[in-house]
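REQUEST
  id: r-88c1
  op: predict_structure
  target: Isoprenyl transferase
  payload:
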Amino acid sequence: MYPLFSNKEKKNSQEQLEKEALDPQRIPNHIAVIMDGNGRWAQKRHLPRVVGHKQGMEVVEVITKAASNLGVKVLTLYAFSTENWKRPVDEVNYLMDLPVKFFNRFVPELISHNVQVNVMGDESKLPKKTQVAVHNAIEQTKSCDGMILNFALNYGSRTEIVEATKKIARDVKDEQLDESQINDEIFAKYLMSEQLHPYNDPDLLIRTSGEQRISNFLLWQIAYSELVFTEVYWPDYKPQNLYEDILKFQQRNRRFGGIKA
Ligand code: IPE
Ligand code: IPE
Ligand code: MG
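RESPONSE
  id: r-88c1
  status: 200
  body:
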Protein backbone atom coordinates (compact mmCIF):
# COMPACT_ATOMS: atom_id res chain seq x y z
CA MET A 1 0.00 0.00 0.00
CA TYR A 2 1.19 3.51 -0.79
CA PRO A 3 1.35 6.01 2.07
CA LEU A 4 -1.37 8.63 1.81
CA PHE A 5 1.10 11.49 2.43
CA SER A 6 4.78 11.76 1.60
CA ASN A 7 7.06 12.68 4.52
CA LYS A 8 7.35 16.21 3.17
CA GLU A 9 3.59 16.62 2.95
CA LYS A 10 3.24 15.17 6.46
CA LYS A 11 5.79 17.66 7.77
CA ASN A 12 4.06 20.54 6.01
CA SER A 13 0.64 19.56 7.28
CA GLN A 14 2.05 19.26 10.84
CA GLU A 15 3.60 22.71 10.45
CA GLN A 16 0.27 24.04 9.18
CA LEU A 17 -1.53 22.53 12.18
CA GLU A 18 0.91 24.17 14.61
CA LYS A 19 0.37 27.48 12.86
CA GLU A 20 -3.41 27.12 12.95
CA ALA A 21 -3.29 26.40 16.69
CA LEU A 22 -2.11 29.98 17.25
CA ASP A 23 -4.47 32.79 18.15
CA PRO A 24 -3.83 35.36 15.39
CA GLN A 25 -5.01 38.14 17.73
CA ARG A 26 -2.26 37.37 20.25
CA ILE A 27 0.88 37.09 18.17
CA PRO A 28 3.70 38.71 20.18
CA ASN A 29 4.56 42.12 18.73
CA HIS A 30 8.25 41.84 19.56
CA ILE A 31 10.11 38.52 19.62
CA ALA A 32 13.77 38.42 20.62
CA VAL A 33 15.92 35.36 20.02
CA ILE A 34 19.25 34.31 21.50
CA MET A 35 20.35 32.18 18.55
CA ASP A 36 22.56 29.70 20.36
CA GLY A 37 24.01 26.27 19.59
CA ASN A 38 25.64 26.81 16.19
CA GLY A 39 28.98 25.46 17.38
CA ARG A 40 27.53 22.36 19.06
CA TRP A 41 25.35 21.67 16.03
CA ALA A 42 28.49 21.55 13.87
CA GLN A 43 30.59 19.63 16.39
CA LYS A 44 27.91 16.94 16.64
CA ARG A 45 28.41 16.44 12.89
CA HIS A 46 32.24 16.52 13.17
CA LEU A 47 32.26 19.76 11.20
CA PRO A 48 34.09 23.02 11.95
CA ARG A 49 32.09 25.41 14.17
CA VAL A 50 31.76 27.94 11.36
CA VAL A 51 29.63 25.48 9.37
CA GLY A 52 27.11 25.86 12.18
CA HIS A 53 27.21 29.64 11.78
CA LYS A 54 26.66 29.29 8.04
CA GLN A 55 23.65 27.04 8.59
CA GLY A 56 22.46 29.46 11.27
CA MET A 57 22.41 32.22 8.66
CA GLU A 58 20.08 30.19 6.44
CA VAL A 59 17.77 29.72 9.41
CA VAL A 60 17.69 33.49 9.99
CA GLU A 61 16.15 33.92 6.56
CA VAL A 62 13.53 31.20 7.04
CA ILE A 63 12.53 32.38 10.52
CA THR A 64 12.42 36.02 9.41
CA LYS A 65 9.88 35.11 6.73
CA ALA A 66 7.84 32.95 9.11
CA ALA A 67 7.72 35.73 11.74
CA SER A 68 6.85 38.37 9.16
CA ASN A 69 4.03 36.20 7.75
CA LEU A 70 2.58 35.84 11.25
CA GLY A 71 2.42 39.61 11.67
CA VAL A 72 5.26 40.00 14.19
CA LYS A 73 6.25 43.68 14.36
CA VAL A 74 9.85 43.34 15.56
CA LEU A 75 12.19 40.34 15.42
CA THR A 76 15.39 40.98 17.36
CA LEU A 77 18.18 38.48 16.76
CA TYR A 78 21.29 38.30 18.97
CA ALA A 79 24.00 37.83 16.36
CA PHE A 80 27.20 38.86 18.19
CA SER A 81 27.70 39.88 21.82
CA THR A 82 30.31 42.26 23.23
CA GLU A 83 31.80 39.13 24.86
CA ASN A 84 32.05 37.15 21.60
CA TRP A 85 35.35 38.92 20.76
CA LYS A 86 36.92 36.41 23.18
CA ARG A 87 36.54 33.67 20.55
CA PRO A 88 39.37 32.50 18.27
CA VAL A 89 40.19 35.12 15.67
CA ASP A 90 39.20 32.89 12.73
CA GLU A 91 35.74 32.37 14.17
CA VAL A 92 35.33 36.10 14.90
CA ASN A 93 36.41 36.91 11.33
CA TYR A 94 33.87 34.45 9.98
CA LEU A 95 31.12 35.94 12.14
CA MET A 96 32.04 39.46 10.96
CA ASP A 97 31.77 38.30 7.37
CA LEU A 98 28.33 36.74 7.83
CA PRO A 99 26.34 40.00 7.70
CA VAL A 100 28.11 40.81 4.40
CA LYS A 101 27.10 37.42 2.97
CA PHE A 102 23.61 37.58 4.47
CA PHE A 103 22.71 41.03 3.19
CA ASN A 104 24.27 40.46 -0.24
CA ARG A 105 22.05 37.46 -0.70
CA PHE A 106 18.86 38.31 1.11
CA VAL A 107 18.18 42.05 0.90
CA PRO A 108 15.99 41.70 -2.25
CA GLU A 109 13.94 39.03 -0.49
CA LEU A 110 13.67 41.15 2.66
CA ILE A 111 12.38 44.01 0.51
CA SER A 112 9.85 41.72 -1.18
CA HIS A 113 8.59 40.83 2.32
CA ASN A 114 8.51 44.53 3.28
CA VAL A 115 11.04 43.89 6.07
CA GLN A 116 13.10 46.79 7.41
CA VAL A 117 16.61 46.10 8.71
CA ASN A 118 17.82 47.70 11.93
CA VAL A 119 21.00 47.13 13.90
CA MET A 120 21.80 47.80 17.54
CA GLY A 121 25.21 47.56 19.13
CA ASP A 122 28.54 49.34 18.94
CA GLU A 123 29.08 49.44 15.19
CA SER A 124 32.29 51.43 15.44
CA LYS A 125 34.23 48.30 16.50
CA LEU A 126 33.04 46.26 13.51
CA PRO A 127 35.34 45.82 10.49
CA LYS A 128 34.72 48.37 7.74
CA LYS A 129 33.20 45.82 5.34
CA THR A 130 30.67 44.77 7.97
CA GLN A 131 29.76 48.39 8.69
CA VAL A 132 29.26 49.04 4.97
CA ALA A 133 27.06 45.94 4.53
CA VAL A 134 24.95 46.95 7.54
CA HIS A 135 24.56 50.56 6.39
CA ASN A 136 23.62 49.49 2.86
CA ALA A 137 21.00 47.05 4.14
CA ILE A 138 19.50 49.71 6.43
CA GLU A 139 19.46 52.22 3.56
CA GLN A 140 17.98 49.77 1.03
CA THR A 141 15.15 48.70 3.34
CA LYS A 142 14.39 52.05 5.00
CA SER A 143 11.08 52.52 3.19
CA CYS A 144 9.84 49.02 4.08
CA ASP A 145 7.20 49.41 6.76
CA GLY A 146 6.40 45.79 7.64
CA MET A 147 8.36 43.87 10.26
CA ILE A 148 11.61 45.28 11.66
CA LEU A 149 14.43 42.74 11.56
CA ASN A 150 16.68 44.02 14.31
CA PHE A 151 20.17 42.53 14.60
CA ALA A 152 21.99 42.87 17.90
CA LEU A 153 25.54 43.05 16.60
CA ASN A 154 28.41 43.74 18.98
CA TYR A 155 25.65 44.32 21.50
CA GLY A 156 25.94 44.12 25.26
CA SER A 157 23.20 45.19 27.58
CA ARG A 158 25.42 46.47 30.39
CA THR A 159 27.28 48.72 27.96
CA GLU A 160 23.96 49.91 26.56
CA ILE A 161 22.79 50.86 30.07
CA VAL A 162 26.11 52.52 30.97
CA GLU A 163 26.08 54.54 27.72
CA ALA A 164 22.48 55.62 28.37
CA THR A 165 23.45 56.72 31.87
CA LYS A 166 26.37 58.78 30.58
CA LYS A 167 24.12 60.49 28.05
CA ILE A 168 21.55 61.27 30.73
CA ALA A 169 24.30 62.71 32.94
CA ARG A 170 25.46 64.93 30.06
CA ASP A 171 21.92 66.10 29.34
CA VAL A 172 21.40 66.97 33.01
CA LYS A 173 24.71 68.84 33.06
CA ASP A 174 23.75 70.72 29.88
CA GLU A 175 20.34 71.49 31.40
CA GLN A 176 18.54 69.61 28.63
CA LEU A 177 16.99 67.39 31.28
CA ASP A 178 16.13 67.89 34.92
CA GLU A 179 17.00 65.14 37.39
CA SER A 180 13.38 65.15 38.61
CA GLN A 181 12.20 64.14 35.11
CA ILE A 182 14.18 60.88 35.04
CA ASN A 183 11.88 57.89 35.28
CA ASP A 184 11.49 54.48 33.56
CA GLU A 185 9.95 56.01 30.47
CA ILE A 186 12.65 58.68 30.02
CA PHE A 187 15.43 56.19 30.77
CA ALA A 188 14.11 53.84 28.03
CA LYS A 189 14.41 56.66 25.50
CA TYR A 190 18.18 56.67 26.00
CA LEU A 191 18.53 52.97 25.22
CA MET A 192 19.24 51.57 21.74
CA SER A 193 15.83 49.89 21.74
CA GLU A 194 14.20 53.32 21.41
CA GLN A 195 14.72 52.82 17.64
CA LEU A 196 12.01 50.16 17.89
CA HIS A 197 9.41 52.42 19.48
CA PRO A 198 6.63 51.57 20.39
CA TYR A 199 7.84 47.96 20.51
CA ASN A 200 10.98 48.59 22.59
CA ASP A 201 10.48 45.60 24.88
CA PRO A 202 10.22 41.97 23.72
CA ASP A 203 6.97 40.23 24.60
CA LEU A 204 8.66 36.88 24.08
CA LEU A 205 12.33 35.96 24.48
CA ILE A 206 13.43 32.62 23.04
CA ARG A 207 16.82 31.01 23.68
CA THR A 208 17.76 27.94 21.70
CA SER A 209 20.28 25.18 22.52
CA GLY A 210 19.18 24.33 26.05
CA GLU A 211 21.18 27.06 27.86
CA GLN A 212 19.09 28.91 30.39
CA ARG A 213 20.75 32.28 30.78
CA ILE A 214 20.50 35.76 29.33
CA SER A 215 24.18 36.37 28.40
CA ASN A 216 24.00 40.17 28.64
CA PHE A 217 21.00 40.53 26.31
CA LEU A 218 18.32 43.25 26.74
CA LEU A 219 18.50 43.27 30.55
CA TRP A 220 16.31 46.34 30.89
CA GLN A 221 13.87 45.42 28.12
CA ILE A 222 13.05 41.87 29.30
CA ALA A 223 11.72 42.98 32.71
CA TYR A 224 8.31 41.53 31.80
CA SER A 225 9.07 39.36 28.77
CA GLU A 226 7.91 35.76 28.70
CA LEU A 227 10.99 33.51 28.52
CA VAL A 228 11.02 30.30 26.50
CA PHE A 229 14.07 28.02 26.54
CA THR A 230 14.16 25.32 23.91
CA GLU A 231 16.61 22.44 23.49
CA VAL A 232 16.79 22.83 19.69
CA TYR A 233 20.11 24.11 18.32
CA TRP A 234 19.63 27.26 16.26
CA PRO A 235 20.66 25.64 12.93
CA ASP A 236 17.85 23.08 13.46
CA TYR A 237 15.23 25.69 14.40
CA LYS A 238 12.22 25.52 12.06
CA PRO A 239 9.06 27.62 11.60
CA GLN A 240 7.28 24.79 13.41
CA ASN A 241 9.51 25.42 16.48
CA LEU A 242 8.66 29.11 16.29
CA TYR A 243 4.93 28.31 16.24
CA GLU A 244 5.34 25.97 19.22
CA ASP A 245 7.24 28.63 21.17
CA ILE A 246 4.61 31.26 20.35
CA LEU A 247 1.94 28.81 21.49
CA LYS A 248 3.76 28.49 24.84
CA PHE A 249 3.70 32.29 25.04
CA GLN A 250 -0.04 32.32 24.32
CA GLN A 251 -0.63 29.79 27.11
CA ARG A 252 1.05 32.02 29.70
CA ASN A 253 -0.80 34.49 31.87
CA ARG A 254 0.97 37.84 31.83
CA ARG A 255 0.11 39.68 35.01
CA PHE A 256 2.68 42.50 35.11
CA GLY A 257 2.45 42.45 38.88
CA GLY A 258 -1.33 42.61 38.90
CA ILE A 259 -3.74 39.75 39.48
CA LYS A 260 -5.03 37.11 37.09
CA ALA A 261 -7.49 38.55 34.60
C1 IPE B 1 25.55 31.09 18.71
O1 IPE B 1 26.12 29.83 18.61
C2 IPE B 1 26.13 32.06 17.72
C3 IPE B 1 27.00 33.08 18.31
C4 IPE B 1 27.26 33.24 19.58
C5 IPE B 1 27.63 33.98 17.39
P1 IPE B 1 27.45 29.46 19.40
O2 IPE B 1 28.61 29.72 18.52
O3 IPE B 1 27.49 30.12 20.73
O4 IPE B 1 27.24 27.90 19.56
P2 IPE B 1 27.61 27.03 20.82
O5 IPE B 1 26.90 27.64 22.00
O6 IPE B 1 29.11 27.07 20.98
O7 IPE B 1 27.10 25.67 20.50
C1 IPE C 1 24.99 34.53 23.35
O1 IPE C 1 25.50 33.26 23.11
C2 IPE C 1 25.37 35.45 22.22
C3 IPE C 1 24.74 35.17 20.93
C4 IPE C 1 23.86 34.26 20.67
C5 IPE C 1 25.17 36.06 19.87
P1 IPE C 1 26.90 32.79 23.72
O2 IPE C 1 27.11 31.41 23.23
O3 IPE C 1 27.95 33.78 23.41
O4 IPE C 1 26.60 32.83 25.28
P2 IPE C 1 27.34 32.08 26.49
O5 IPE C 1 28.80 32.34 26.35
O6 IPE C 1 27.03 30.62 26.33
O7 IPE C 1 26.72 32.67 27.71
MG1 MG D 1 26.81 29.59 22.55
